[in-house]
Amino acid sequence: MNKQFAQDVERGLSGSPKRLSSKYFYDEAGDKLFQAIMNLPEYYLSRSEYEILEMHREQLLRCFAGSGEAFNLLEFGAGDGFKTKVLLRYFSEKQIPFRYVPVDISGNILRQLAASLQEELPVLEVEPVEDDYFQALKKVKETTGRRSVVLFMGSNIGNFSEEETISFLGKLYENLNKGDLLLTGFDLKKDPDQVRLAYNDSGGITRAFNMNLLKRINEELGGEFNLEKFKHYPMYNPVTGEARSFLMSREKQEVRIKELGRSFSFEAWEPVHVEISRKYDLPSIEEYARRSGFAVVKHFFDCKHYFVDSLWEKK
Is the pLDDT of residue 143 over 70? Predict the structure, then answer.
């Protein structure tokens, strides 16, 4: 039994309002579902960021490596590396010395990524790390004197609350050396209908992805959730820029989780918050950089300005 998973589930379902962490979406089934989500016509985020990396790969390399200096490329929440491979292929073709360090909490997806890179880019130096982001960064710093370039893409930053964002960026700043870089993906505010569709696709893949969290509780913790008694409910607030997803109990019910030795009560239509995905404007992005101590180097946009990869430096 994953003790941290068990503790977080118990804490989240005991609270008011109830919540479950989105980081537990990602087991083997969740990884496959998220890969399917990234290919959905409604899910513009992946296509937009892929376009950014394709369009600006030459300029990004100049920013990362200067006149050809070796560097470490760490990717937080690497996933299957689909977008990042745009950069990895290009950097390798230019014969720039760098080491790619994909970091993720899913060992399954890291193994898949390492295997695919071994086949596609056999000369690439790859060091997968299944660990906490900051522990991984510490390990890299201890073994090399190279500049570190951290990628935190896919709008993963949007899964944090305001307080978590400030804390995360401040801690990251403290763990980097002077001259190190951070490239962060931010989903920009846009037509609210377009945002809502990205989290409520017509094929129900996003629903299955969210429901997989309950399946995981059933499989790993002996939960007795009946998925038909829960509804996937997404919403978007254009004022705050927050897209939130909930699992709502369709009826009053009790659900037992054997490994926790207890049951949890749900009222009819009681929501369980499972995900937040925040949308931004440029002034707020630049304010985050300023408050955490970074200097903005450049913003990289897709053609429609749906998304931005913002490059910051620790001065």
Answer: no
- The answer to whether residues 152 and 288 belong to one domain is yes
Domains in the chain, number: 2
The pLDDT assigned to 135 comes to 83
What pLDDT was estimated at residue 273? 97
Q: How far apart are CA 77 and CA 103, in angstroms?
A: 6
Are residues 297 and 265 both part of a single domain?
A: no
CA distances from 19 to 2, 91, 200, 215, 277 (A): 18, 41, 19, 16, 15
Looking at the fold, whether 289 and 210 belong to one and the same domain comes out as: no
Same domain, 114 and 251: no
* Domain match, 152 and 290 both: yes
Longest dimension (CA), the chain: 64
pLDDT single digits (tens) 240-275: 999 999 999 999 999 999 999 999 999 999 999 999
For residue 13, which of 205, 278, 274, 218 has the smallest C-alpha distance? 274
pLDDT at residue 137 above 90?
no
- pTM as predicted: 0.88
Q: Average of pLDDT values for 151-172?
A: 93
Range of the domain at 113: 44-60+70-188+281-313
134/226 same-domain check: no
